[in-house]
Amino acid sequence: MPGGIPWCFVVLFAVCLKCLAQNFGQTRFICTSVPVDMDMCSSVQSSGSAEDLKTNVLQLRETVLQQKETIMNQKETIRELTTKLGRCESQSLLESGPNEAKPGAGRKQSGSGKNTMGDLSRTPAAETLSQLGQTLQSLKTRLENLEQYSRLNSSSQTNSLKDMLQSKIDDLEKQVLSRVNSLEEGKLNPKNETEERVKIESTLTSLHQRISDLEKGQKDNRPGDKFQLTFPLRTNYMYAKVKKSLPEMYAFTICMWLKSNASPGVGTPFSYAVPGQANELVLIEWGNNPMEILINDKVAKLPFVINDGKWHHICITWTTRDGVWEAYQDGTQGGNGENLAPYHPIKPQGVLVLGQEQDTLGGGFDATQAFVGELAHFNIWDRKLTSGEIYNLATCSTKALSGNVIAWAETNIDIYGGATKWTFEACRQIN
């Protein structure tokens, strides 16, 4: 044969071509070693006919397909395990505490959307007890206000309900004290702790509702701006929404009264989101970082120190020209800067929320960023107020102005998830 190629090799090559001509999809070829002293042609002849080769190729193809299916199943299993591992890592990070705030849009990586009572199960036991103690103190303060009201407006029904609520609060304090003792002695296992927490939270929710019903009786007898909002726990469902949106603004002044002793960080007193930008205008103190104002996701750090459990009046002014801003606490300017979202007007048609930070328009709340405390007299102007006008607001002067964009009034605000309204007079509580 030409070139000295054995005829049997040509036959082998032809058989292989015939096999390849069949539509077997992707295949593999198995090489078999042949001893040096063995005739390759006789080896091929002994391997059988073309039909046998076809059968072997089909079997090999079936084996490859089975292995491919097994690999795909294993990949899916690995993907599921990776997802579960990620959840476990997220859980451990939450339990270790949010020690570092995320700059700018990074803080938008929120947790799950489940309704939980302040994500208490994700916090250490000591922090849980601290939150319960703060809530009980808030309830007791509200009951004291109801007592003052009942002295002026005697009602046997109101008094009997007040006494019942006081009794329930006393029982709750005993439960919390018992829980502290159990923790100190190491008697409380996770299952019992969860059951006890759920029972206490259920009672707290019931108390909040009953006290709110009592406070509604005062509503008709007070001016529309003499109220405050209370957010007693870190949750992803307690909030208030301002019914009116903001117009396009090239300058603003935002003022409010705040009272909180939450740590770390008081949370988000307010957030304004617009389509395409959840951080259009946000005030937040998260983790161990200072309070920040965000405009179009650009950040400026503010000099406020307000988590001492006392009422404080704060104001922030801003103009789009050069992004100049000023910060006032209790009537005194404490900081200023520029280049905060310069020449970016505040966009209209958004959603203004009190007590929560929005990851999406009107939602996407994260319990770790929720405001804990009390808020009142939230006003917005579409201009920069003078230092004298801000001082009048902080000192409760009769010359104090109401916001020309958003004015503090009960009719302007809807509340959700257990946040409450009750009578508040700033100057009386501060002086």
What's a concise summary of this model?
By secondary structure, the protein is α+β, with helices and mostly antiparallel strands. The protein has helices spanning 7-21, 40-46, 50-96, 125-152, 156-185, 190-219, 387-394, 426-430, and strands at 227-231, 239-242, 251-259, 267-274, 277-285, 292-295, 298-301, 311-319, 324-329, 332-337, 351-354, 373-381, 413-416, 420-423. It is built from eight helices and 14 strands.
Report on the architecture of this protein.
This is Neuronal pentraxin 1. This protein has 431 residues and is α+β, with helices and mostly antiparallel strands. It has a domain at 242-423: Jelly Rolls. The protein contains eight helices and 14 strands. Strands 10-9-8-3-12-1-14 form a seven-stranded antiparallel sheet. It has a seven-stranded antiparallel sheet with strand order 7-6-5-4-11-2-13, with no helix packed on it. It is extended. The model is unreliable at 1-25, 43-47 and 95-123 (pLDDT under 50).
